Amino acid sequence: MASSPPKTNQLVFILGHPLEHTLSPAMQNAAFKSLRVPWLYLPLDISTEQVRPVLQMMRSLPAQGANVTVPYKGNVITYLDGVEPEANWLGSVNTIYRKGGKLFGTSTDGEGFLRSLGPLRKKLKGSRGLLLGAGGAAKAVAGALAGSGVLGFQIANRSSRRASQLVRALRGKFKRLEVGAVSIREAEKLLPQFDWVVQATSVGLKHGDPSPLSLKAASPSTWIVDLIYHRETSFLKEARGRRLPRLGGLGMLLHQGALSFSRWTGKKAPLKVMENVLLHSLGSR
Ligand code: NAP
């Protein structure tokens, strides 16, 4: 007789809004199943007002933690019992984990991003680039890039105030980093100077979103990354049209998820299982 499946004894959440597109529940539940960890990963689509009570509820539930996504990576920090230094100074938490009755925050986005680059990671050393965005994901990626051996980068964001805040935080930590804030229009003019462009805004999440920046002036060797993973965005389409080396956000989703999984369970994540689920989920859309 077939043995009955293990009963769920712990919960892990993903907190965000909107959550229709998230592939994390399928990826994490497959990882739990494959290592026979009897846990369940659940999406919780919440409003800003619900962030605090939901975290309070998690403290009294059999819950091991959560992922945090758009737009709450900054908001959760105030309500946690502690935040690891880099996530704290960058103001971006994507992973909450539990120690005793307390909840702590960290970010796996930056290291997940670096791991997703594969052979391109080596090209960061001594390079100059452009980062689009200054939200939660952009901050984590900026921290990872700043520590990766790059000479420097410019940050272009819709809100110039947020870009300048991020520049100040980076300058405070990385004294030799050449970092500054520019407008999107200025960035388009400066494109020939950049070895890479990383698109970390949410422009492209919705079908029909325009490209946040024209790549017309990019040099043919400039490599392009878009953190969005649900579809080929207008930005990546333009990069394909220009035959620029390019990467979507699926690898980052995989690696940040694998790092979160290890943080919760203490186990090495089953990368292949997780990757297959992501490819299958995207293929069936
Ligand atoms: P967030 O904290 O809400 O930040 C959103 C960013 O997008 C801000 O820089 C914001 O600029 C900009 N933005 C939003 N709407 C815009 C518009 N209409 N025009 C120009 N700029 C606009 O979100 P996040 O957590 O950083 O996520 C950003 C993106 O990264 C999302 O698409 C998310 O799916 C993706 N992501 C992917 C991964 C992965 O694993 N591949 C991981 C994390 C995030 P303002 O500051 O001016 O509002």
Q: What's the CATH class label of the largest domain?
A: Alpha Beta
What's the β-strand tally? 12
- Which ligands accompany this protein? NADP nicotinamide-adenine-dinucleotide phosphate
Give, in order, the helices and strands.
EHEHEEHEEHEHEHEHEEHEHH
Low-confidence stretches: none
What is the molecular shape?
A: globular
Task: Outline the biggest β-sheet.
Answer: 6 strands, mixed
**Total separate domains:** 2
Fill in the CATH topology of the largest domain.
Rossmann fold
Strand line-up in the sheet with most strands: 2-1-3-5-6-4
What is the CA–CA distance across the termini?
36 Å
Describe it.
With 285 residues, this protein is an alpha/beta fold. It has helices at residues 24-34, 51-60, 85-90, 109-116, 136-146, 160-173, 184-190, 234-241, 250-265, 271-283, and strands spanning 10-16, 39-45, 63-68, 82-83, 95-99, 102-106, 128-132, 152-156, 178-182, 196-199, 223-226, 246-247. Helix 1 packs across helix 9, helix 4 crosses helix 5 (136-146) and helix 9 (250-265) packs across helix 10 (271-283). The longest helix has 16 residues, at 250-265. It starts with 9 loop residues before the first strand and ends with a helix. The chain binds NADP nicotinamide-adenine-dinucleotide phosphate. Residues 70-71, 73, 109, 133-138, 157-159, 162, 200-203, 205, 212, 227-229, 249, 252-253, 256 line the site of NADP nicotinamide-adenine-dinucleotide phosphate.
Short structural summary:
By secondary structure, the protein is α/β, with parallel strands linked by helices. The chain has helices at 24-34, 51-60, 85-90, 109-116, 136-146, 160-173, 184-190, 234-241, 250-265, 271-283; strands at 10-16, 39-45, 63-68, 82-83, 95-99, 102-106, 128-132, 152-156, 178-182, 196-199, 223-226, 246-247. The chain has two domains: 10-107 and 251-283, Leucine Dehydrogenase, chain A, domain 1 (Rossmann fold); 111-248, Rossmann fold (3-Layer(aba) Sandwich), CATH 3.40.50.
